[in-house]
Design a protein that fits this description.
Bound molecules: FE2/S2 (inorganic) cluster
Number of helices: 1
CATH class: Mainly Beta
Shape: globular
Number of domains: 1
Radius of gyration: 17 Å
Helix content: under 10%
CATH topology: Rieske Iron-sulfur Protein
Length: 124
């Protein structure tokens, strides 16, 4: 997993939700019902910051158009089918910190373009 960042639990409990910089879409970290959740911050509908939204009953409501996403899974709960689920992130507790990690490490280890010797074929 790729490290994203960490937030103080005491600061998170006081704020309710915090945005952690993780370009290009950042991560919204939420304290709700005694748990920490981490979900992509930029709403998949039109990019509003979910960290500015409201949290209730395991859901976060986007501040721009009111779409509801499940904090646990990122699933769009309502309205259904109008955009993709938000990505969610791994959370581990270390002392007074919540440590956020990206389960999808998209780091490119070999930037060579595909070609005939790598299973690709660019011939016409
Ligand atoms: S930008 Fe989030 S619901 Fe439209």
């Amino acid at each position: 997993m790729k490290p994203v960042g960490r937030v103080s639990l005491s600061a998170l409990k006081a704020a309710g939700q915090l945005r952690v910089s993780y370009p290009p879409f950042d991560v919204c970290v939420v304290w709700s019902d005694g748990r920490v959740y981490a979900i992509e911050d930029a709403c998949n509908h039109a990019g509003a910051s979910l960290a500015q939204g409201r949290v209730r009953d395991g859901l976060i409501q986007c501040p721009m158009h009111g779409y509801l996403f499940a904090l646990e899974t990122g699933e769009l709960v309502a309205p259904r089918g109008l955009c993709a689920a938000q990505r969610t992130f791994h959370v581990a507790l270390e002392g007074d910190d919540a440590v956020i990690a990206d389960p999808f490490d998209l780091t490119v280890t070999d930037a060579s373009p595909p070609g005939p010797d790598r299973g690709g074929d660019f011939s016409d």
